[in-house]
Structure formats: C-alpha cells, structure tokens
Amino acid sequence: MMKPDLPIWHAPDGSVVSCTEKVKVMTENMEELAQVAQDAFEDAILMGCDEHQVRAFLVTMMQQLDNPYRA
Asked: What's the whole-model pTM score?
C-alpha cells in the first residue's frame, strides 16, 4: 500500500492539530485516498490513457474540492 509522507496538520490559526484521534483519522483518510488514487491511476494507464493527462486531472480534481463549512 502506498504510504504518503504526511505533514503535521495545522488549524486555520496556525496551531498544530495535536489531538491523537484527529491525527489518526487524518492519517487513515489520507492513506485511503492515496490508495484509491493509485488504483485509479494504474487502471487508467492499463486502459491506455495518457499518464500526464490522468495526473493533471487528479490535481485539478483535488483543487476543485468544495469546502461545505466555509463561513
């Protein structure tokens, strides 16, 4: 399984997210997301898609995520 290098998570005010349970959930979520992205990427390559186009799409998709909690 792909293990991404995870950052130290920060709150919007710059403070470190230090709650062990929150960090655990973030780690699990990011590792799961990395694995799903890797699987989708490999499937695309096996189906003959252009690697650069798939990478660009994945980046764009992440940049377009919506924050439903924005005030």
From this structure: 0.84
